[in-house]
Amino acid sequence: VVGRIEEGAAPFMDPIMQVLGAALGGAYHAEPSLAIVAVLDIGEAAQALRGAFAPHADTAMQLLLAVLSSAAAPRAVKPKAVAAVGDVALAIGPAFQRFVAPCCQVLLQAAGVAAAGVDDADWEAVDAAVELRQALLDAFTCIVQAVADDAAATAAFLPACPAILQFTEHIVSAGDSECPAEILKSAVGLVGDIAA
Questions:
Q1: Torsion of CA 38, 43, 47, 53, to 10 degrees
Q2: pTM, whole model, 2 decimals?
Q3: Whole-angstrom Cα distance, residue 56 to residue 17?
């Protein structure tokens, strides 16, 4: 609904965020599909509302970072949560500065998991690793683009750059099944955005 009415949804976002918070409030075990939908809805709301999403960014980032930090969250939820972080970053632009440090910390922890070697014979694990890697590369790219025009926001992001570049190097040097062309393209784009 938010995607359809875009910025007209702003007055309804408080109750919408409450519903999404309830859906993500530890319901991972009972309804992982509900958690996926709630995370996707956060990303869609951020995309639709753009700058008008700023008043809801604190709640959204709390929810997303909780999902990403939770050992109980199913593997299928985490790439969607990573993507939603990128959506929030692009939506609020330089105002994302206040989330850069905690966000990069959690995303780099996920990058450590994503960079771990995967048994090529386990296609499900390979697919999950590729999906998480792609989501991380996209989210880091969104964060770079969000903070690029603000000196203070960029300065907040700079300490994470060496670890992000190390993650990028690691996944690019992975085997063929773990580094398909779209991963390579995203990695090169991220490095280019960081260099710019």
A1: 80
A2: 0.90
A3: 8
